Amino acid sequence: MEKKNIAVVMGGYSDEYVVSLKSGQLIYDSLEREKYNVYKVVILKDEWYFLDDNEQKLEINKADFSVTLGDGSQLKFDACFNIIHGTPGENGILQAYWDAVGQRYTGCNFYQSALTFNKKDTLAVLSKYNIPSAKSIYLRKGEKIDAENIVAELGLPLFVKPNQSGSSLGISKVKEISELENAIAFAYKEDDEILIESFLDGTEVSVGVLDYQGKTIVLGITEIVSENEFFDYEAKYEGASQEITPARLDDETRRKVEEIAIRAYDSLGMSGFSRSEYIIMNGEPYMLEMNTNPGFSPASILPQQAKIYGISIQDLCGNEVEKALKKPLH
Q1: Tens of pLDDT along 20-33?
Q2: Rounded to an integer, what distance in angstroms lies between the CA atom of residue 286 and that of residue 140?
Q3: What is the Cα–Cα distance from 85 to 90, expressed in whole angstroms?
Q4: Residues 309, 313, 315, 317: what is their CA dihedral angle, to the nearest 10 degrees?
């Protein structure tokens, strides 16, 4: 059997590229070398490059996502393992480009990527499937801010977050009306659209869901106990939180979270890794957001959940590649 050429595509245009490079390394190390020739491709704002065996950079030909090797031969990839967090790998831009040049890839298609990257639109679609979320107000840059009205409608404390951004960048918890203006300015640094949400006082959980061997499964439910005011960037990546897997939930609540997480995944037509965040309040899970390319470094939640579920990282990654290789080209 001829080995397939697999590119692990990492990096990205946002501050999350650092996490993506760690995720990419884990996937690169985990894919079976008996089945695949595995390569690294890094996509950054100012350059797209392939790394050869000596970690030398070779330029990616954007016309067909190929690379010309040192000996002059062309290398084409049978599939790309997309592990870019944030733009362009998690918001549909890269997927649309790959569709256009006839390149197979892991994870969901450009529409699902674009939709789930937009928190407001995801929650609006999911509300049709009876998946509850916090009460929110949506604002665009330049719109007039009526702090009194916002507080009257949502109460305090409240959260201000960019509509499209990952890794908890640009999020603030606002306890006093006087803090609202600065929080809004901070969120606008990440995105031109923001969401202001009511505070859900409950247990935060992170739920890994994927389609594995033809079935949608919940990989695990992780309870997030942040040492900070909420699960912000520092809590996520710099150890200022406890992540308890499996979450400390009674059976009925656990079943409810699993059922809602699977319903959200299937009703959005998802594929590949996903991690959705919920706050459980009075036994009800309220959805915060869904990530279609969640962190996959050794410290990330998804690999931790897989370990407890009993699926090896090798099998988890191999399953994604095999699905990508069978994908019909557009």
Answers
A1: 999 999 999 999 99
A2: 24
A3: 6
A4: 120
Q: Is the pLDDT of residue 219 over 80?
A: yes
Q: Order of strands, edge to edge, in the sheet holding 215-226?
A: 241-244, 215-226, 203-212, 274-281, 284-291
| Distances, alpha carbon 22 to alpha carbons 19, 54, 83, in Å | 5, 19, 10
pLDDT in tens, 168-186: 678 899 999 999 999 999 9
User: Across residues 143-170, what is the average pLDDT?
Assistant: 87
Return the amino acid letter for 54: N
The pLDDT, as a whole number, for residue 166 is 56
What does the alpha-carbon distance between residue 194 and residue 188 come to, in Å, rounded to a whole number?
Answer: 7
The pTM for the full model equals 0.90
Q: Which residue has the tokens 């002059």?
A: 72
Contact 308, 239 (CB under 8 A): no
Tell me how far apart the alpha carbons of residues 222 and 243 are, in angstroms, rounded to a whole number. 6
* 251-304 pLDDT tens trace: 999 999 999 999 999 999 999 999 999 999 999 999 998 999 999 988 899 999
Q: Are strands 274-281 and 203-212 parallel, antiparallel or unpaired?
A: antiparallel
**DSSP class of residue 114?**
H
- The terminus-to-terminus CA distance of the chain in angstroms comes to 26
Biggest CA pair distance of the chain: 67
Q: Backbone phi, then psi, for 257, in 5-degree steps?
A: -65, -45
Distance CA 208, CA 85 (A): 16
Query: Virtual CA dihedral for 59, 65, 68, 69, nearest 10 degrees?
Result: 80
What's the one-letter identity of residue 256? K
- Position 157, amino acid: P
Spatial contact of 126 and 116, defined as CB atoms under 8 Å apart: no
Q: Which residues of 262-298 are buried (b: 16+ CB within 10 A; e: fewer)?
A: bbbbeebebbbbbbbbbbbeeeebbbbbbbbbbbbbe
